[in-house]
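User: For a teaching handout, I'd like to show students what a predicted protein-ligand complex looks like in C-alpha cell form. I'll give you the sequence and the SMILES for NAP. Please answer with just the structure.
Assistant: Understood, here is the input followed by the structure.
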Amino acid sequence: MNNRTYRVIVAGATGLVGRKMIQILEERRFPVGTLIPLASARSVGQTLRFHGVDLPVQELSETSLAAAQADFALFSAGASVSRQFAPIAARVGTVVIDNSSAFRMDPDVPLVVPEVNPQAAFTHKGIIANPNCSTIQMVVALKPLHDAFTIKRIVVATYQSVTGAGWRGQHQLELELEGKTDPDPKFPHRIAMNALPHIDTFSDDGYTREEMKMVNETRKIMGDDSLRVTATCVRVPVLGGHSEAINVEFEKQCDTARIRKLLAKAPGVILVDDPQSALYPLPLDAHDRDEVFVGRIRIDTTVPSGINIWVVSDNLRKGAATNAVQIAELLNAGQGV
Ligand SMILES: NC(=O)c1ccc[n+]([C@@H]2O[C@H](COP(=O)([O-])OP(=O)(O)OC[C@H]3O[C@@H](n4cnc5c(N)ncnc54)[C@H](OP(=O)(O)O)[C@@H]3O)[C@@H](O)[C@H]2O)c1
C-alpha cells in the first residue's frame, strides 16, 4: 500500500473552485501532508480551513511556488494566471493540474477526464489540463455510447449556472434576486429571470469561445478529430449545476434499452429517467454530488440512428474540483508524480 503524503498547492484557493478543491481534497481523504493555499495579494491575511486547521492564504508568486516545494498544484485562478505561473511551478518539479483554458488544446498537455481517458494523465510533462465544466459532463455521459455505437455528430445546447462564472456571477444573481442592481456586474445583462446566449467572448464566426471549447475539447478527450460537434451555450439563473440538451447521431444502430443499460453501468453516471413519475435530472438534485445525471432518453426519429438526452452535473464538483482531485488520485495510484 502507498502511504505517501503530498505537499499540495491550491492556486486560486479563495475562489468558488479553489474552495471546493480544498473541501474535496478533505472529503476524499487525498493524502495531503501539507496544504498551501495561494491567491492574489488581495487575499493575504485571510485563512482557509482544511481538516480543522486555519491555513493562511499566501500570494501566488514565483517565490511562493518555489518555497512550497509542492508535489501537486491545483490551479483555478484564470487562464492568464495559469499561463504566467503554471510553467514556473512545473519547472520546480510540481505537477500542475490546471482548471483554466490556458493549456487545454496544447498538444503537449494531456486533457483528462478520469472516466474517459485516464491513461492520458500519465503522458504529462508537468502540466495536466482539466477540461471545461460543460465538456466534462458531456463526455462522461457520451463515452460509453461512443464506444458502443460510434458517435458521428453531437448537437448540444447548454443551460449553465451562474457559478460557472465564478463568485461574481453568483453575487450578481443573488443581488438581483433581492431586487438590487450589481454595481460591478459579471454578465452583460440582468441574469435574474433571464437566459443569456453568451458565455465567454464572441469570435468573428459568431460562436463563443465557450462553444468552441466544447467542440475542440470533446474531440481531444475522445481522441477523435473527425467527431462533429456543434454547441450553443446559454447562461441561466441557476445557482449551481449545468444542464445540457444533447442530440447525438451514431454510425451504428442504437436502441434505448441498450443505451439505458450502458448508462446504468457507466462510471460516474446516474440514470434518472422515469418521466411519467416526473423523474429526470435536475440541477437542484445534482447539487453537491460528483456524478453526471442522465435522463429524458428518446430516439431521434429524424435520423437513421440517434437520440436526445438531458445531462446535468454540479459544475463546481465534477465540472472542476472533483475532476482535478480525481486526476491527482490517478497519479497517486499509478505513482505518476
Ligand atoms: N466556476 C466553475 O464552474 C469553473 C469550472 C471549470 C473551470 N473553472 C475555471 O476555474 C478558474 C477559477 O474559477 P472560479 O469560478 O473559482 O473563479 P472565482 O470565484 O472568480 O475565483 C478566482 C480565484 O482566482 C484568484 N486570482 C485571481 N487573480 C489572481 C492573480 N493575479 N493571482 C493569484 N490569484 C488570482 C482569486 O483570488 P482573490 O480572491 O485573491 O482575488 C480567486 O481565488 C477559472 O479559470 C475558470 O474558468 C471554473
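For the handout, you might add this sentence: The pocket of NAP is lined by residues 12-18, 39-40, 42-43, 60, 76-79, 81, 99-100, 133, 163-164, 166-168, 315-316, 319-320 (CB under 6 Å).
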